[in-house]
Write a structure and sequence with these properties.
The structure holds two protein chains of two kinds. Chain A is mainly alpha-helical. Chain A has two domains: about 80 residues, Helix Hairpins; about 90 residues. Chain A contains seven helices and two strands. Chain A has a two-stranded antiparallel sheet. In chain A, strand 1 and strand 2 form a beta hairpin. In chain A, helix 4 packs antiparallel against helix 7. Chain B is an alpha+beta fold. In chain B, helix 12 runs antiparallel to helix 16. The longest helix of chain B has 26 residues. Chain B is globular and about 100 Å long. The chains are: A mainly alpha, B alpha+beta.
């Protein structure tokens, strides 16, 4: 389950060496032919954890991306060409998901619950009403076009709330890691926080869209 | 190294090709001549005139002469209201809201016209390089959506080019700079061209060139400045000639050209004189314009570009102080106030070490070199400029792949049925950043067929959107319970169907004669070069065997051949070469055994 080490160590079909990533063997320099998308953490040989070493993620991503990119398979066989398209897409998808804290939490939650879904619509009592109020006051601020400073204050408020949320999520995951709390309860609490996060993110998107137009 | 792949900057106003030579990357051009091919084409009774030669036709035959066709690529009639007003050629609606351009009794898609420009770039390059070119990397504005990218790729196909890759213009520029100066860190590329504006922020680290954010406006560029300027000029002329009608195509084009020249002059001096002559209307007007006046005209547009820059920085969570380098791209960045704006915003002097006109083509040429297997020391990671998603209940836009996601990428979404034994689902696909689908771009409709009959809500159809490295989308679907692949029929809303592309390509066989002429020209021009070298090499022999008048005749005929080889008529060129062949026969006879000279007697295609 949640652990400091990747769960499996894939072996290269070509040279039989244990690989750091199931996507590519750095020992015999060959792209691996895969039918299904590997686990995101395993792609980068990273432990299943919320507190991810982002520098490591970045480094391993860059090592893999230059080996897998379709630009280097323009003259390869059809199979490798297709695989490079597919593996590059998977790699980018995994990197994007793991890089951002909320999407990383979502993915990790999915792994830990084995696909069993908690209610993605449930919100803490009173939160929806609060969001409505926030939304209305944001629309008022945005209509009042000259008031950029207030919009910025509003934005910073939301950013701060999101950061607090991430701290909470981090604590909840670490409780699971250390087995100091009831799993199901913690996982459900994380889901609830993620649901809240989605609403807050939507408010930020609204601000950035208004600045774009 | 396999077959050469050139890079083509297919611009709104100018196009340009580049490639990597032994000495390094450089634009493809003749010494002493501009390598730039204006993106202008005119339909005449003798066929297409493309590039520099077509420029005069803008005023002499405005309704037959097409420029700024890039603005029409992949767009529908409703989006083009503004363009239709101002462009002198006739734009008409075709099926599926597509647009066509009517020239005489023929209608052409923007793809076909763009293809003519590409053909010109291709044949020019071939004639300069002396060998055929079949593959190219073509650049597009970073902000081009799927339909616009598809249209560009189709134009390449119609032109007989294998478009191995489509890359974003600012990214191409970053490659040119990054590899040239071995930069590391964050680079902002400010690209203000003739018709579009893009800002891209890239992170350069070792071998990886990664776009982290991109933002822009496909309807903002130098053309807008020309338009604003010509409106002001028109008003001035109106004051003197109150009753003159200045809205006919010829006057419009004259104003546009005066405005264009004035803009260029104002880039290097604080004020400039201009003169407007419309003989047909007995209009003659002179005036002076200052950079101050011009700057106030373009201020609003420039403010818009800066808010895009701000947006891009926010999208990648960077502060302006974290940008290590600012690079300028596009002809409009020659305007001094543009540079001042950029400098003030980014708090640093922009880098203009590589000519902003050439930098995009050069970057594309380097990418072409990489794709041809010439190097593998860097990889370019672009992003998707606008979110991709589907229409959900109530006309809301549900994003499946978000903006600025690194490509290639893919994402899936599950769908189910609403009625028992339903075997098909219709899904509408959109691209955009707004909340409601009505404000986004409809890319197409996907009809899933072949879902096994089941109770409503039971089938689980997984639809996967895959975006390739060119930013082009493909879709696949799988019914998860039965494992059956659902087939997908894509109805593109803006692009051409495969059938239509084939149709156009078939039609273009009608122009095969024209193409044949072009191929021959290239071949003949190469022969001319060889023949000339042969004559020069044996000129000392000529002194002995030929009379003064014979030698003079040869010299004269060489001049004639040289003139014809600059022209476009292969048959006449051959005739003139045959005459040269006759004149030099005594010389060849005298130098029997000299391989070069006997070669020269073999006039091309005569055997």
């Amino acid at each position: 389950m949640i652990s400091k080490q990747p769960a499996s160590h894939p072996v290269c079909v070509g040279c039989q060496v244990t690989m750091a990533s199931p996507l590519f063997c750095f020992s015999c320099n060959s792209i691996q032919r895969l039918n299904a998308q590997p686990n995101f953490f395993e792609m980068f040989s990273l432990p299943y954890t919320y507190e991810l070493d982002l520098k490591q993620l970045e480094e391993r991503y860059e090592q893999l991306v230059i080996e897998l990119h379709p630009d280097f398979y323009a003259h390869s066989t059809g199979i490798d060409k297709r695989q490079s398209q597919e593996s590059s897409a998977w790699l980018n998808q995994a990197y994007t998901a793991l890089k951002e804290p909320l999407s990383r939490a979502e993915y990790l939650l999915e792994l830990l619950t084995h696909g069993k879904k908690f209610d993605q619509r449930r919100l803490p009592d009173g939160f929806l009403e609060e969001v409505f109020v926030l939304q209305e006051s944001l629309e008022d601020l945005l209509e009042d076009a000259g008031d950029a400073a207030s919009v910025e204050r509003f934005r910073l408020d939301i950013v701060q709330r999101l950061e607090q949320l991430q701290t909470q999520i981090s604590e909840q995951f670490s409780q699971i890691e250390q087995d100091t709390a009831d799993w199901d309860e913690s996982l459900e609490a994380i889901q609830l926080n993620l649901n809240v996060g989605r609403y807050l993110q939507r408010l930020l998107d609204r601000i950035s869209r208004s600045q774009q137009t | 190294m396999t077959e050469a792949i050139i890079g083509i900057d297919l611009g709104t106003t100018n196009s340009l090709a580049a490639m990597v030579f032994e000495e390094g990357p450089e634009v493809i051009g003749r010494a002493g001549e501009s390598p730039i091919i204006p993106s202008v084409l005119s339909k005449t009774s003798n066929g297409w005139i493309v590039g520099r030669e077509a420029l005069p036709y803008r005023t002499s035959a405005p309704s037959q002469t097409v420029y700024s066709v890039k603005r029409l690529m992949g767009r529908d009639i409703e989006e083009l209201e503004e363009e239709i007003q101002e462009l002198p050629y006739q734009i008409v609606a075709a099926q599926r809201k597509l647009v066509k351009i009517r020239l005489g009794d023929h209608e052409y898609t923007p793809q076909e016209l763009s293809a003519e420009i590409l053909k010109k770039v291709k044949t020019e390059s071939e004639s300069i390089l002396g060998y055929p070119i079949n593959k190219a990397v073509i650049t597009v504005p970073a902000y081009f959506d799927d339909a616009q990218r598809q249209a560009t790729r189709d134009a390449g196909k119609i032109a007989g080019l294998d478009v191995v890759r489509i890359i974003n213009e600012p990214t191409a520029a970053a490659i040119a700079y990054g590899l040239d100066e071995k930069k590391e860190g964050y680079v902002a590329v400010y690209d203000l061209g003739g018709g579009t504006f893009d800002i891209s922020i890239l992170r350069l680290s070792g071998k990886v060139f990664k776009v982290v954010a991109t933002c822009g406006n496909t309807h903002l560029g130098g053309d807008d400045f020309d338009r604003a300027l010509s409106i002001v000029l028109k008003e001035k002329v109106k004051q003197k000639y109150a009753r003159a009608d200045l809205n006919d195509p010829i006057s419009q084009q004259i104003f546009k050209q005066v405005a264009e020249n004035l803009k260029i002059q104002l880039s290097s001096s604080l004020e400039a004189d201009y003169q407007i002559e419309i003989p047909e209307k007995s209009i003659s007007y002179q005036g002076t314009f200052s950079t101050g006046e011009f700057d106030s005209l373009i201020k609003e547009s420039l403010d818009q570009t800066l808010s895009s820059c701000q947006q891009a920085l926010e999208d990648c969570h960077l502060d302006v102080s974290e940008i290590d380098e600012v690079v300028l791209v596009g002809g409009s960045t020659r305007i001094p106030s543009v540079r001042q704006y950029v400098e003030r915003f980014f708090q640093r002097k922009p880098n203009v070490a590589i000519d902003p006109y050439k930098v995009v083509a050069i970057g594309a040429g380097i990418q072409g070199h990489l794709l041809a297997g010439g190097r593998r020391d860097f990889v370019l990671l672009d992003v998707i400029p606008l979110a991709l998603g589907i229409e959900t209940l109530g006309g809301t836009f549900s994003k499946i792949i978000t903006q600025n996601t690194t490509i290639p990428t893919e994402a899936s979404e599950l769908f189910t049925t609403h009625v028992d034994n339903q075997t098909g689902i219709e899904i509408n696909l959109f691209q955009g950043e707004r909340e409601l689908v009505k404000d986004c771009r409809k890319l197409g409709q996907f009809k899933l067929r072949g879902i096994p009959p089941m109770q409503a809500g039971l089938p689980l159809v997984e639809v996967t959107l895959h975006v390739d490295a060119n930013g082009i989308l493909t879709v696949s679907a799988l019914e998860k319970r039965s494992g059956q692949k659902a087939s997908i029929e894509v109805v593109p809303f803006h692009g051409l169907t495969q059938y239509e592309i084939e149709q156009i390509m078939d039609d273009s066989y009608e122009h095969a004669l024209e193409d044949f002429n072009e191929r021959q020209l290239i071949e003949f021009r190469n022969t001319v070069e060889g023949v000339f070298q042969g004559i020069e090499k044996n000129w000392s022999t000529a002194e002995n065997v030929l009379s003064d008048s014979q030698r003079e005749a040869i010299r004269r005929q060489m001049k004639v051949v040289e003139e014809y080889s600059k022209g476009t008529d292969a048959q006449s060129l051959k005739e003139q070469m045959d005459i040269l062949g006759d004149l030099t026969r005594p010389l060849a006879d005298a130098a029997i055994g000299n391989a070069v000279l006997s070669e020269l007697q073999k006039s091309p295609a005569s055997s």
